Amino acid sequence: MRFSVISSVAYFIATGLAAALLTPAAAQIQTNSEGLTSDQVIERSGVPPSAVAAVVNDAVVTTFDVRQRMKLMLISAGGQIPPEAMPQIQAQALRDLIEERLKLQETGKWDLVVGEDEVQNDLSLMAAQSNITVDQMVDELGNAGISVNTLKEQIRSQIAWPQLVQGRYRDRVRVNEDEIETTLERMREDVSKEQFLVSEICIPVDNPSQAQEYYQGSLQLIEQMRRGVPFAVVAQQFSACTTAAVGGDLGWVRAGELDEELDNAIRTLPPGSVTNPIPSDGAFIILAVRDKRAAAIAGEPTFTLAYASADESLGNAAAHAALENIETAEVCFSRGLRIDMGKGVGFSLLENVTLDKIDERFRPFIEDLERGEQSTVIEADGAYHSAYVCDKDEGLGLPSRAAIENRIYSRQLERIGQQYLRDIERDSMVDIRSYNLTQPNG
User: Fold this and answer.
1) What are phi and psi of 382, to 5 degrees?
2) Strand 59-62 and strand 302-311: pairing?
3) Do residues 168 and 235 share a domain?
4) Are strands 283-293 and 345-354 parallel, antiparallel or unpaired?
């Protein structure tokens, strides 16, 4: 694989649960002004302690599983989910568990097994977020009435599913140069405009005939945020985008970088505002503009160069012939040659270098080159030298072509993964039992 687009680490837990575990007596997290603990809130929610919640092919999801997941969600949210949002938390907990069962069943069919060591590595990273050991984290979870096994199953699914989707479908994803160039051109045209610090929530519309229901559900999420639930918490629990792992954080985006309908929505919003649900690519997208800043001022260009040199002993003609292979050797993305350039020819990738970092003898041959252009062959110090421009930042602070390619690739693969899961669910037996998961006790 040329590059990885989905992290296996369960950051959505690390950013919420790890922070919560810093608080002493995590089991006593307050959820409202009445001082209710997570256990008390769940008791009021109406989820029975022991029953079958759903059957997923040959796997059973129990109400105990649902309650465990709800506790985990409450703790990872730092107790900031109001009791009136519990019906949605119940439904989301059950939905997450069903999807995890489907994902693990499918990965099992392909003999994709996540080892205990991989799970432990993620647990270690999560514990490190709170400067505690894994054993201490397990104890804190136990104090909150949560078995570490519920967390392990979640991690196992999050590691296995992206690996399966990438392994099966990565060759179907094609990011062509026109897409990258179009995105860059749009960003260059808008570089004089503001930049936006954006977060997102994605709600896939599985059935177009139910779009209005999904829209209303998205409005309910916005209403939760108006009542004080942080955007990041809602994104972690409800968003289908991969950015849910980091609370929906897209980072700083420039005008023209997002799809047109999303781009138009954020331009008019003041910082601290949230859009209404926006239909986009088979989903409703909710965007939050956390901050704005002035456009970057053009500065000194930086280059990413594929550099190669040939020993003078090769002779002029042979050295020139060898160095002409820099472009086809694909140093730029693969970090290594795909063909043998021959004995006595060396290469390296020089990333994000400014002209003042380049040997002054070579600067005149490089400074006016654009992306995709190669310098002439230069003779110096008993060798022949040449450089190919993999990328060039005009000093406007634009992301690299590789970063743009990775983002487009990730988005396309994410959509394929969502459709893959929907197809699996349609072909599976998913029986949700009739007990009322969505109405709290009176």
Assistant:
1) 70, 25
2) unpaired
3) no
4) unpaired
Q: Say which CATH number the domain at 56 has.
A: 1.10.4030.10
Can you give the length of the chain in residues? 442
Q: What angle do CA 185, 391, 344 make, to 5 degrees?
A: 155
CB neighbour class for 372 (10 Å; exposed up to 12, middle 13-18, buried from 19): middle
Residues 37 and 29: beta-carbon distance below 8 Å: yes
Q: With DSSP H G I counted as helix, E B as strand and the rest as coil, what are the percentages for the chain, rounded to 5?
A: 50, 20, 35
My answer on whether 59 and 138 are in the same domain is yes
Is residue 439 one of the residues assigned to a domain? no
Cα separation, 87 vs 24, in Å, equals: 28
> For position 324, which CATH number holds?
3.10.50
Tell me, yes or no, whether 441 lies in a domain.
no
Backbone φ and ψ of 82, nearest 5°: -70, 150
Lowest mean pLDDT, pick from 93-97, 192-196, 309-313, 432-436: 432-436
User: Would you say the pTM of this structure is higher than 0.85?
Assistant: no
**Taking the alpha carbons of 187, 191, 194, 196 in that order, is the dihedral positive or negative?**
positive
pLDDT at 273: 92
* Owner of token pair 């020993």: 311
The domain tally of the chain equals 3
- Residue 430: how many CB atoms within 10 A of its CB? 16
Q: Which domain holds residue 376?
A: 302-393
Cα(394)–Cα(355) distance, rounded to whole angstroms?
Answer: 12
What pLDDT score was predicted for residue 36?
A: 54
Q: Which residue from 222, 289, 219, 279 is spatially nearest to 249, judged by alpha carbons?
A: 289
Residues 136 and 265 in one domain: no
Asked if 430 and 103 touch (Cβ cutoff 8 Å), the reply is no
78 and 127 together in one domain: yes
